[in-house]
Write a structure and sequence with these properties.
The chain has 345 residues and is mainly beta. The chain has 1 helix and 19 strands. The longest helix has 23 residues. The two termini are 41 Å apart.
Length: 345
């Protein structure tokens, strides 16, 4: 059986982190510095880990983020520790991750399609784009699309941009995402309200470098030309070296009550059961040049509730009922997943 699948299965189980996003009424000044009253009561995420999960080495630099919201914006702050603070890209919408960078991914309706990507470097050069769907499913990046009204800033502490910094140096960022530019892909095109959730991930790209002749140089393979692979540290691991697995991104719950706690809804666990079959269908097609017509051709490891598979000569659909038996959860062969209430049929 070939392991070179076009859509590899993650090496982790479905355990995305949850972040409780607190409402904020304090005045905000954008400068990249998180050491101010606006952020004082807002907790950080867990430290970022390797994109493949905890089975991989612990990142050599600490990264953590925090989020808050009001009626108009989602605010993101992050601290990226390390004495290698450098950047070269200066043109908006150029590929930012050729530098060390900080990235944000947002899927407001948790369907794994039509989601937003934002990247920035220590020069505060940004790249904002929309993905029609994940690359693995034939998605295209819409580079010309902009998050209208996006604002960001960088602050450097104990460090020098593009110069050698102190061991306790870091660069911190602030990003202001206006809802008016994100709602086309949100449920019912509405701003978030109490108890709503979006899917979210963060990524930090960090290259292996040497400091020579007053600048940072990427370390290379034996050929002396090809850079060593970059490190990719994230908040929510995807279990594969590919951030574009939105089904494994974390959960961002919006609330005005900081004492509330949230859990992953059952519908998302059922989506995951369908997603595991999606991986297996992709593998089956790689091996047989067609999709399986029966679940038994894929696995015997199925949940206690019924899952249905309908296959044609070129596509398939997986679906099951929700726990309340009020609608159908579906997953199409192009990766899209969602829920259809019975009253909408």
């Amino acid at each position: 059986m070939s392991k070179n699948y076009s859509i590899p299965s993650p090496i982790i189980s479905f355990q995305p982190p949850i972040y409780t996003c607190q409402y904020n009424t304090k005045p905000f000044t954008l400068d990249g510095n998180l050491d101010k009253d606006f952020w004082a009561d807002i907790p950080f995420t867990e430290p970022f880990i390797d994109i493949e999960g905890n089975s991989r080495p612990t990142p050599r630099f600490l990264t953590k983020a925090k989020l808050t919201w009001d009626d108009n914006n989602l605010y993101v702050g992050a601290i990226l520790y390390g004495d290698e603070i450098w950047a070269t890209v200066t043109q908006r919408d150029d590929v930012i991750f050729v530098d060390n960078d900080f990235e944000v991914f947002l899927d407001p309706d948790s369907d794994t399609q039509q989601y937003y990507e934002f990247e920035m470097n220590a020069l505060n050069t940004i790249w904002d784009l929309m993905l029609t769907k994940a690359y693995r499913d034939g998605g295209k990046p819409l580079d010309s699309w902009d998050i209208k009204g996006i604002r960001s800033a960088v602050h450097i502490e104990h460090g020098t941009l593009n110069g050698k910094s102190e061991k306790d140096a870091f660069w911190s960022v602030e990003i202001v995402f206006p809802y008016r530019s994100l709602l086309e892909c949100a449920p019912e095109n509405k701003r978030p309200s109490e108890g709503d959730y979006w899917r979210l991930n963060f990524s930090r790209v960090q290259w292996n470098t040497d400091f020579k002749d007053g600048k940072f140089i990427k370390q290379t393979r034996e050929d002396g030309k090809t850079p060593l692979p970059e490190d990719n540290w994230v908040w929510s691991p995807t279990g594969v070296i590919n951030i574009h697995y939105p089904e494994l991104w974390g959960f961002l719950f919006f609330t005005k009550d900081a004492s509330k706690t949230f859990s992953i809804p059952d519908i998302e666990y059922r989506k995951w059961e369908l997603r595991k079959l999606y991986y297996l269908q992709s593998h089956y097609r790689n091996e047989h040049d067609r999709y399986a017509a029966n679940l038994s051709d894929l696995t015997t490891d199925l949940p206690s509730y019924p899952i249905h598979l309908e296959t044609t000569s070129h596509t398939y659909e997986l679906y099951c009922r929700n726990a309340e038996n009020t609608g159908t959860i579906y997953l199409y062969s192009d990766g899209k997943t969602g829920f259809i209430p019975d009253e909408d049929k």
